[in-house]
Design a protein that fits this description.
This protein is α/β, with parallel strands linked by helices and 449 residues long. Helices cover 57% and strands 9% of the residues. Strand 7 (275-279) and strand 8 form a beta hairpin. The longest helix is centred in the last third of the chain and has 27 residues, at 415-441. The structure holds guanosine-5'-diphosphate (GDP). It is a peripheral membrane protein.
Length: 449
């Protein structure tokens, strides 16, 4: 799946990476390209819009992490947005695979159009439950319209090493379902997989039949099987089934083919139902749990960068930062502290990290980050502070012309540079005091980052 989308997104990131610092225009252009790539991958339009809006908003408002490049940060942001579209992300509970958390025998209802891979998937799930979960599994075909389907399930059951419910000619789907549950209870099966009949397209009779079986068997899982190759049709099928019958999860098959991947990205948003499993081949072993983060990783192919950015964001020394934040709030932040902060530049943009610890910081943080805090400037400032005496650092007011001259010479800078540093430090201290006052009043809460 995803190859074409991967290629396109990689192209976008390559272009970003050739820039040193990203401007708003760069981010806008990248968002446009991400939008095109998603549309070409057949992602539903509202989902595309949502993803792109999120990417842009977060890229513009992102807290700068100095030890990674802006392009790398954008990659991480796109990654997070994809994970969310796929049904994962922070604060969202995604349980991969199917749930058996119910009293035995647990019924699993398999739903889907003919040819979607429903019967094959029933066999795959049976095999996995028997071998991995050590469950006693009963397979039953409710497809009375096509005797071949019942025989196919029988063959698959044999291959999976599980039992299939004996075929009794002339029974209705409801009767077969009732018999399956009875046998399962009597013979202490853990799981019963009910493979309903498929149709070539959605019709009322099919919906009625599935709904009736569902009402009678009260399955713990109602899994809809859809073919990834059918793209947006798969999403619409899922929406129709979920509205009419209610599904607990979606199995997307043929992800081993060259489907464009849009269905996987649209599914959650359009249908509201989570993708739980992926079918990745004709063999019974070819069944995978669906992990939003791993799929996003597969799409971007940039797992290294994503974890790099995550780590860099964690590198900030929280204890140190909290100490500094407290000092700032009390207005005790001096040049010594400022120098300490400059030293941490190698680790990450600790200034913004510290600002993040202050309560209630909104737009001002962006102002500070935009205020030319680039690396060379910070290094020069570190050198200037380095050539001050401890007393001067704690008490910048004593810095008169002769001291400034000495300091500038020691740092290989000019007196102007020294003045600029002091001015900046003054401005910053004033801003800190203002911000902490605002913060204490609880205003400007929930700004950036
Ligand atoms: P049903 O009509 O929905 O029960 O579909 P079947 O289970 O009979 O599957 C139809 C065809 O699709 C069979 O030839 C399967 O081998 C094939 N198939 C099912 N799942 C997958 C999959 O994940 N990948 C591939 N490549 N083929 C699959």
């Amino acid at each position: 799946m995803f190859e074409a989308l991967s290629g396109k997104l990689n192209g976008v990131f390559d272009r970003l990476r050739r820039r040193g610092a990203l401007t708003e225009a760069d981010v806008a252009e990248a968002s446009r390209e991400v939008r095109l790539a998603l549309l070409e991958a057949d992602v539903a339009l509202p989902v595309v819009k949502d993803i792109v809006a999120k990417v842009r908003e977060r890229a513009v408002g992102a807290e700068v992490i100095k030890s990674v490049s802006p392009a790398q940060q954008v990659i991480k942001i796109v990654n997070d947005c994809l994970v969310e579209a796929l049904g994962g992300g922070e604060g969202v509970e995604h349980v991969p695979g199917i749930s058996l958390a119910a009293a035995a025998p647990v019924a699993i209802l398999m739903i889907g159009l003919q040819g979607s891979g429903k019967t094959t998937t029933s066999g795959k799930i049976a095999l996995r439950l028997r071998t991995r979960d050590k469950k006693k599994v009963l397979l039953a075909s409710l497809d009375v319209h096509r005797p071949a389907a019942q025989l196919q399930l029988e063959t698959l059951a044999r291959q999976a090493g599980v039992t299939s419910l004996p075929i009794v000619a002339g029974q209705s789907p409801l009767q077969i379902a009732a018999r399956a549950m009875e046998v399962a209870r009597g013979e202490l099966y853990d799981v019963v997989i009910l493979d309903t009949a498929g149709r070539l397209s959605i019709d009322e009779a099919l919906m009625d039949e599935v709904a009736a079986v569902k009402a009678a068997t009260r399955p713990h899982e109602s899994l809809l099987v859809v073919d990834a190759m059918t793209g947006q049709d798969a999403v619409q099928t899922a929406r129709a089934f979920n509205e009419r019958v209610g599904v607990t999860g979606i199995v997307m098959t043929r992800v081993d083919g060259d489907a464009r991947g849009g269905a996987a990205l649209s599914m959650r948003a359009v249908t509201g139902a989570p993708i739980k499993l992926l079918g990745a081949g004709e063999k019974l072993e070819a069944l995978e749990d669906f992990h939003p983060d791993r799929i996003a990783g597969r799409i971007l192919g940039m797992g290294d960068i994503v974890s790099l950015v995550e780590k860099a964001a964690e590198t900030i020394d929280r204890a140190e930062a909290e100490k500094m934040a407290a000092k700032m709030q009390k207005g005790q932040f001096d040049l010594e502290d400022y120098a300490g902060q400059l030293k941490q530049i190698g680790k990450m943009g600790s200034l913004s990290g510290i600002l993040g610890m202050l309560p209630g910081i909104g737009k001002m943080k962006a102002q500070i980050e935009n205020a030319n805090l680039d690396n060379t400037l910070l290094k020069r400032q570190a050198a200037i502070i380095g050539s001050m005496t401890p007393k001067e650092r704690r008490n910048p007011d004593i810095l008169k012309a002769s001291r400034k001259k000495r300091i500038a010479a020691g740092a290989g800078a000019t007196v102007q540079d020294v003045n600029r540093l002091l001015k900046q430090f003054d401005d910053m201290s004033a801003m800190m005091k203002r911000m902490s006052k605002l913060g204490q009043k609880g205003m400007m809460r929930g700004g950036l980052g």
